[in-house]
Amino acid sequence: MSTDIGGEIPCSDVGFPRGNSPEEFLANMHTFLEAAAAKIANPAPWPDFSPDALRDIASIQEAVLIEKEVSRGGAGNPTVVARADLLRQDVWNRWRAGAGIAPSGEPLSDVLGKLTEVADRQLAILEQTSATSTSRRSRDFRPVKPEPAHAVATPNVETSTAPKFSELEDEYFELRKAGGASDSALSTGRMRAATFKALVGDRPIDCYLPIDLQNFVNELQYVPVELSREGENTEELRQMGIHAAIEKNRIESCYEPLALKTIQDGYVQTVRAIINGAVGLHRLRNPFEGYRVRWPDNAKPSVKREALDYEKVDKVFRLGVDSGYLDDAMLGPLCLLSSRRIGILPFIRGSDIDRKHGVDIVRVNGIVYDKEKGMYKRVGFKTEASLRFFVLHDFFRRIGFVEWAAAQGDNFIFRLLSGTTDPGDVASKRVNRLLKKAGAIGMNIEVAHSLRHGAKEMFIEEDLDDEATRLQMGHEPNDVHGNYGQQSALRRKQCQELAHFELPKEIDWSMFNGLDFEAMASRARLVGRPKRL
């Protein structure tokens, strides 16, 4: 603040009277901003400089930019710093040419001295212009008496009429549900939104500030991952509550925290999506627009999934066969040998199995009809490429699975899974339970999706060409250029190779011989834990 000297009204650093109370300060600031907005909308005309004066100003500006980069040393623009003398000489010669003076061979030091004289002369003109503009601005501004507080009051939770975050959340997820989002995706999104409300608060949208999003991120780096994913400490953490769990983990670092990628692409992305949806639908102000989150340096880096070794896969397959359930027994080998995502396999019907190029193939449509429920279901596919047909290894025909599955017609092969609300999610959980029993480390490293990674490694070991591997796995080409000349479906030779490559010897494939697939598919799933004797 400037001091009151010579009877002047004390002003803030930006040029308006601070007043004698907070209300008066806010009122004066409001008036000042309105006056500034008016000047921006109707700027004062540019001073009537002569062509010579404008040429001088342009030369000064260029020279200042050069010296600014040079003064920054190693941090300056390397091109400008390395050629500073040439650029200075060029500015001088162009100024002389504009003034009708021939280029000279004067020492650069003399040149800069003369350019400084030009700068001094134009600076006096600019200062005079600035003084005139300032006096005009002073005459335009008049201190005003404070208006009622509601005219300039910042929105708060008590007075705001904007919708709360929870209302926008409900609207967002209702729209996603109507758009066909799976129950698991909606549940995960709801959980992340609930975390935001717990850590930041459920406020009207215009009562959030960018610092709230940053504080949310800072707290997330200590959230134990087992709060949202089943583990040994899940029950203890849920009883403790998220605030106590964060505080304990902040001090003791005793629980595995969320990974940085989960924070970025999961929690923060969900909050931004809810806010952005509300802004687009209701023309509200986005409180986080333009804010660049600073990600915590100590956040846990994301882990890479690993393929399972064949010895562990053998244990998983054995546990599945011994369970007596078709999904437990056949989802694993189907995923490994076909390389397709587990989430798409529960939607296979008997009519989806066909013969092409002399091998068995499967075509899964994006929308399938459930005859028992009399309704259509959307398949949980990720890309359109994942809906292309894939090859079944000859192993499935040898054990009688293809013959039995094709006989199911328009009915789903995995009957127990088809009756759930989210077959893909349930299938993934079933396989993950088997992996856990087999000794897989889990923690998003050795999980159901690891079978798909293992399939890719198996294809590499069997020397299958890259294009056959990509098409079998249902991957898109890496770029637009890759689309040209690429096949959209597997060729005959590729199909034959995928159906007859040598199976890993470390796995005892004989465990699948003689299975009664009909009995396994019809067996009712036992619910709950077995009773103790």
Overview of the structural elements:
It is extended, with a radius of gyration of 35 Å. Helices cover 51% and strands 3% of the residues. α2 packs across α5. By secondary structure, the protein is mostly helical. The chain has three domains: 142 residues, no CATH class; 82 residues, Orthogonal Bundle (DNA polymerase, domain 1), CATH 1.10.150; 213 residues, hpI Integrase, Chain A (Orthogonal Bundle). The protein contains 22 helices and five strands.
Q: What is the element layout, followed by pairings?
A:
Blueprint: H1 22-41, H2 51-71, H3 78-82, H4 84-98, H5 108-140, H6 165-178, H7 183-199, H8 210-220, H9 234-240, H10 242-252, H11 260-282, H12 310-323, H13 326-338, E1 353-356, E2 359-362, E3 367-370, E4 375-378, E5 390-391, H14 394-398, H15 401-406, H16 415-418, H17 423-437, H18 450-461, H19 466-473, H20 480-483, H21 492-500, H22 517-522
Antiparallel strand pairs: 1-2, 2-5, 3-4
Helix pairs in contact: 2-4, 2-5, 4-5, 6-7, 6-11, 7-11, 12-13, 12-17, 13-17, 13-18
Concise synopsis of the structure shown:
The chain has 533 residues and is mainly alpha-helical. It contains 22 helices and five strands.
Q: Determine and state the CATH class of the largest domain.
A: Mainly Alpha
Mean pLDDT: 74
CA-atom Rg in angstroms? 35 Å
Helix count equals 22
CATH topology of the largest domain: hpI Integrase, Chain A
Amino-to-carboxy terminus distance: 81 Å
Tertiary shape: extended
Q: How many individual domains?
A: 3
E-strand count: 5
* % residues in beta strands: under 5%
Largest sheet, order of strands side by side? 1-2-5
CATH architecture of the largest domain: Orthogonal Bundle
Helix content: 40-55%
